Amino acid sequence: MGLRICIGGATGWTGSALVNGVRAAADLELAGAVARKAAGQEIGGVKVAASVADALSATNADVYIDYTHPSAVKANVLTALDMGVAVVVGTSGMSAGDYGEISAKADKQGLGVVASGNFSLTACLMTRFSLLAAEQVPDYEILDYAKSTKPDVPSGTAQELAERLGRIQPSVPGVPIDKIIGPKEARGADVGGGRVHSIRLPSYVLAVETIFAMNGERLQIRHEAGSSAEPYVGGTLLAARRVVALKGLVRGLDNLLFGTLPAEAKKA
Ligand SMILES: NC(=O)C1=CN([C@@H]2O[C@H](COP(=O)(O)OP(=O)(O)OC[C@H]3O[C@@H](n4cnc5c(N)ncnc54)[C@H](OP(=O)(O)O)[C@@H]3O)[C@@H](O)[C@H]2O)C=CC1
Ligand SMILES: O=C(O)C1=N[C@H](C(=O)O)C[C@H](O)C1
User: Rounded to whole angstroms, what are the CA distances from 38 to 22, 49, 250?
Assistant: First the structure.
């Protein structure tokens, strides 16, 4: 019997790619699925439940994976932990405070949670390269592009990056924000120490770019997502395989792949 996976958001863009990924993996088994509109129907050989609690009481899942909605994810994760199930979080929209609560619950339950603003390999490389750059170049700002209908801001990718860059090297505006002449919002938002400008327009899936600048030169590190959800499957399933051996919260796929950066370990 393989590792038993329950997928929240199983009918969605990412969730349906994951259902296929789990079914194609010899060491994984689809144990449950959650989605409201398809509740009662069958997906990948399992009956879709209307809620995480219903899905996890009907099955003995080892891991719950959430790709639902920013308005639902926190309650879903806390429910799974309360029910003794390790969690992988793909859904965006949770604040640093929300992650604090999840971290405390995971510690209390002795369970693992892996969350990553982006589970694609190339996005995870963008994050790691940006963190390395911030150790050397203190002046940077983050541009966060997504489709016009994305409800949460900044994206999960940009939020996690901003918080982590901000811990290594807070981004300090050349003119302090309270001294700005004109609308302060035009200078973006301070997200955990990193300055983020979010753009929401049709035709984008998601792109995140950090501009590092020194006198006379600039470095731009950019990731651009395409229209397929395939890139998120490998990283999410790697996290599912690893999370069962963890206790507590790990944020960032790059930490699973490459270990903790010394600069982040020092500031933790
Ligand atoms: N970390 C990463 O690498 C990635 C993160 N994401 C993030 O994942 C999230 C989902 O994205 P995407 O796949 O495009 O979303 P979709 O809108 O395509 O799918 C959402 C899924 O969740 C279900 N759902 C929505 N609301 C609820 C709820 N309240 N309770 C239970 N199920 C719910 C939907 O079904 P129904 O409405 O019938 O319930 C559907 O199955 C977003 O936050 C996105 O930013 C996306 C891709 C990669
Ligand atoms: O909403 C999306 O589509 C995506 N969201 C993720 C995020 O919020 O960072 C990332 C993914 O590339 C697509």
Answer: 19, 8, 31
